[in-house]
Amino acid sequence: MSTDQKPIPLPVTAVTCLEDRAHVERSAVLDLRAGVQRLRLGPVSALAVDRTLHAELAADLPATVLDVRIVRDWTPRGPLPSADDDSALRLRVHALEEEQVTLERQRDRLRTRLDVLGRLAADVLREIGEGAGHGESEGPRWERELDRVDEERDEHGERLRTVEARLSAVAAELGASRQAMDVAEEEPAELIGHVELTVEASAAGPAALRLSHLTPCALWRPAYRAVLDGESLTLETEAMVWQRTGEDWSDVRLTLSTARSALATDPPRLDEDRLTLKDRSAAERRTVDVELREEEIGTLGPAPVLGLPGVDDGGEARVLRSPAPVSVRGDGCAHRVPLSAFTTGAHREYASSPELSPLVTQVVRFDNLSGHALLAGPVDLVRDSGFGGRGTLDFTAPGAPVELAFGSCDDYRVVRRTEESRDTTGITQRTVVTRTVRLHVSRFSAPGERGERVVALRERIPVSEVSAVEVRLRKDACSPAPDEVDAEGIARWAVALPPGGRRTVTLVYELSASAKVTGI
Hints:
By secondary structure, this protein is α+β, with helices and mostly antiparallel strands.
């Protein structure tokens, strides 16, 4: 049973791009003969994973797939002609190569011409010697012939020196250009793969083939573009796709998935965790050791890593599809693929947390109306003045609220001052620490600006985890009192500032601890 030498084209029709690989589907219509036959299909990517190769034929024709495998071979790289879509560096190399060939041909012709002129000069001199020996005297003719030969030799010698100098310069430039091209443009892989398919058909006729396999060197990450226009916001969801599989994806149905097929499915091994109880000492029973520490509010999602982060899907595999066929070149560069877009009303707020930053930031809140989960990824922020920077979008479920920061406002200034006093009561010996925080907010407005702006100020109050330490907000001493204080101890004020206005917000709270508490 022989294999046809001319391969049957097997283009890529659908791709499911995963976090670090891709599932590729190919299709073709085969013209089968009756009996057992072996077909050669391709070329295909040499990076295809052999054990994931799967082929099936349509049920219209009674045919069976007996064997399918990938055969790889090395093909020598031949000279490639110049194309219009080549880079400027490659076009320059092609031009230098053509000029070098032309100059070498001119050099060879000039050398041949000089050799002929040398033999001609030798013949003239021999004729003069023989004529002088026989008593002939043709001085004017001999002089003219010698002068003509010398002039032509000088002329062709000068042209030869010019050609050789230009040839040396072209060779030097060509070597530098080739070295630069080797560094800047990597040649395509020479390893080519083909699919050998063995089928058995009971009757002759066309049959539709569907072949699929996994391939590495392909990945995707989510990206977004938020455009703020007045009170409305447009959020565009895109996918950044990279692939260097050795072949281009042209007009394919692209599906993006967060499934991690390479992760192990075995449950983790359970280890023993022994807990030991012991009695407290007399000193430990007399005192309570406490300390002030920073606690970060925990959220779900993967831990940040250096380099390209993974896809945060909230613990559940998500699938996104491109609404139109796309083309992704196999050059290893990032390609943007639009997925969805929606426009919704946005609530804008000017917020500041002076303990963390003295800047006032414009924060926009809206609901996720895309119809799918928004995966964690970078966001290009665009306002009325154009591109304003890049932010980060956390994982957001469909319909859940989203919060984006559109950068700081330069016409605000916030100054924070803190004071602390310590006192001990005489009867109970309780230690009382009183802290006063003053926030000075200023607005610098341009001439002719009208209207007030509300700035949301946030300041935190310690939260006690032990009953021996109490935290109390002194609302009578606050000016003004906070509008609200949440369970995490975040106090919030809505401060209205007119153009050129200034406000001072004062927060006072007490930490009260019993006599046996140490560390405050």
